[in-house]
Amino acid sequence: MTPKDIPQDAATSHEFDAYRRLDLEVIEAKGCHLVTGTGRRLLDLYGGHAAALLGHSHPRLVAALTAQADRLFFQTNLVKLPVRERAARALADFAPAGLDRVFFVNSGAEANENALRLAFRHTRRHTVIALTGSFHGRTAAAAACTDGSEAWYGFPAWPFSVRHLPWNNAALLEDAVTDDVAAVIVEPIQGIAGARAIPVEVLQAARRACDARSALLIADEVQCGMGRSGRAFAIEEAQVTPDVLTVAKGLAGGFPAGAVIARHEVAATIRPGDLGSTFGGGPLAAALIAEVIAVVRDEDLVARADRLGRLIRERCLVGPVESIQGRGLLVGLRLDRPASDVAAQLRERDILVGTSSDPRVIRLMPPLVLQDEHVEQLAQALQEISSS
Ligand SMILES: Cc1ncc(COP(=O)(O)O)c(C=O)c1O
Question: Is pTM, for the whole model, over 0.85?
């Protein structure tokens, strides 16, 4: 580490004090492990906030990134790029059948912001329905749909009308979709709420109600998508196809990228000039998106997420864990004590996990390249915690 790289504490840092930071200084990461400045090696079950889909520095991503950087580092969206078209085709092929038009952006919030704009333009209506426990991002429209965002929203006014309905009540949701509703936006597995899967009946009711009222169903798969749930997209569990699907986080394996994927009739609402982004779909992100999808297919990582998720459910119902929720490798461990205490004890045992908005739930969103032995390591550590 050079002197310039030495992290500073909050009192002397030049960064905003926007994050409650852990006492961990990460200088390197490979596969499922992080290495700190003091030489500690931690098992990363937080997965860089679910972005490190293929683990850290996957050799194929490093190769794709460096080759693309060498050939074409950046270009404007005003020109055609074969690499961008390749990424769009790969993503449309990976997405549920019927979702075949892609608009590239840089983050999850931006993807949701544009999905909502698309819904308003398509339906010419002004109301959105979202669910309790949802998180859709921190930009104005995405935050307006996020449950509880009043605490940090920060803008002087709400941009449109949003109704939050209970996450688990199909009948209430179906009744709430009236003729003024532009869209229902839903995370099929709510990440920040603690890997809470929305019941299949609720997703099916949302689809029926949107069909009946010509509203759009937006699936926010920023956290649960790209194979993490043990299916390519989590909403497939309900055999429901949304009109619009948003992705980010693991989409480019940790490189900033997001996308709105839509049915072509919905995408046809958009004319040149309606949407835009300087960096969205840039060559580096595009090369990585295409390679992430290729690796997910070649290494059979969707099936792996499903199998490892089942193994976690079999092996980790131990120690302070009372029940396990979520699907695939988006897992919530419900505890008999505060999640922050258990997360700290796991960190002492060199395992990094996430917490959630539920104070009793620990969240796991590890790389999909996780190994069986890592699950055993977690199970062992949980056992030790209960007897310590
Ligand atoms: C489900 C979901 N949607 C949207 C977002 C926002 O993504 P970003 O932080 O890339 O803007 C997140 C981030 O955690 C998320 O979990």
Answer: yes
